[in-house]
From TrEMBL:
Keyword Kinase: yes
Pfam family name, one: HATPase_c
SMART domains: HATPase_c
Molecular function terms, GO-annotated: phosphorelay sensor kinase activity
Record-linked InterPro entries: Bact_2-comp_sensor_kinase (IPR050640), HATPase_C_sf (IPR036890), HATPase_dom (IPR003594), His_kinase_dom (IPR005467), Sig_transdc_His_kin_internal (IPR010559)
This protein's GO CC annotations: membrane
Keywords: Kinase, Transferase
The organism of origin for this protein: Zafaria cholistanensis
The protein's name in its UniProt record: Signal transduction histidine kinase
Residues covered by region (Disordered): 95-117
Domain Histidine kinase, first and last residues per copy: 293-393
Biased composition (Pro residues): 100-114
Keyword Kinase in record: yes
Amino acid sequence: MMPMAVQATLIATIAVVGTAVVAFLVARWVRSSRDLGTAAGRATFEALHTASLAAPHLRHGLTPEGAARAARHLRGLLGCETLVITDTAQVLATDGAPLSPAPSSPNPSGPSPSSPMDLAAAALTARHTVVRRLDAGHAVFAPIIVQGRAAGAVGAYTTGADAAQVRAVTEVAAWVAAQVGLAELDESRTQLAEAEVRALRAQISPHFIYNSLNAIASFINTDPQRARSLVVEFADFTRYTFRRHGDFTTLAEELQAIDRYLLLEKARFGDRIRVRLQIAPEVLGTEIPFLSLQPLVENAVRHGLESKDGGGLVTIAAHDSGNYAEITVEDDGVGMDPETLRSVLAGTTEGLHVGLRNVDVRLRQVYGEGHGLVVDTAPGAGTLITLRVPKTRPGNGGPTAGPQS
């Protein structure tokens, strides 16, 4: 077992090293372990490797299952007899030797001063590591503080508790807090993405539903067959936009929804809206974020053509571009001022082009900052919107998204 002072220093380093960096270093260690002949070098990568094994189990925050699996690795990192992980209400996991029954409390109805939750509560209240002498050694409990909020504690039961051991437990708790913080950030991003999809649906529903129903009603007496056909298209479109499963859809499915949308809009505008499709068959199966293309077409109709005398043309194109599918939505409508466009994409202009802003934000969240919308426009010159989507979506393996060229 490595000296405790070395352990504490290594764990302090691990607490500020990202999971990706840990994995990278471990991979390099596997390839070139023969170059790490010193005890310190081997100990460093042993500790990093142990941390990389524990990290995935905390990916969903402090859960009993994740804590139990992480505790096994973290106990090896600390070299203690027993390791405990708690949240603020209960012990989530215990790994190692069974805990001895706590000595009787002077007040039989009160908590034992050495029970895990009592020690965790003491650390959380003090917001720093606490040490308690026990009959068979010491208990060292450090709080897990996530963005200023007490989330739980890491406790180590050991035969000896010198300054190095105390520091080691403190740094492990800080590392656990970092992993929990990352898990909460991922959850926040997911909730934000879901909220933005709800915002897109809310944008679609009052404006589009009202106009569509009016258009359908106008044909009931004059052309009942067309009215019935439009009702079916309306039902299929709304079923697609309000579905409750899946963050992604295929380009083919989104284009089918767009076709229904345009049929309903043509019922209102007649020949004032013309549509041209230029779709390469090989990109139809590309998975794209749900409702990432339809709002762009709606933007072209509502803000590009609706206010233009005589209407105009919407061109939807998609073609293969190496590891990407490049998709464009172009209209020859009224266009917009580039400064207004910048304000829209920055979120400082409310009410107009909401769908444009939401799609841009979602693309950047999914694929990275280099993969937002590219918009070319000017007053009276129409609008061209381009998005480049990796053919393999995140989490499915295959080519990964690189910087947008």
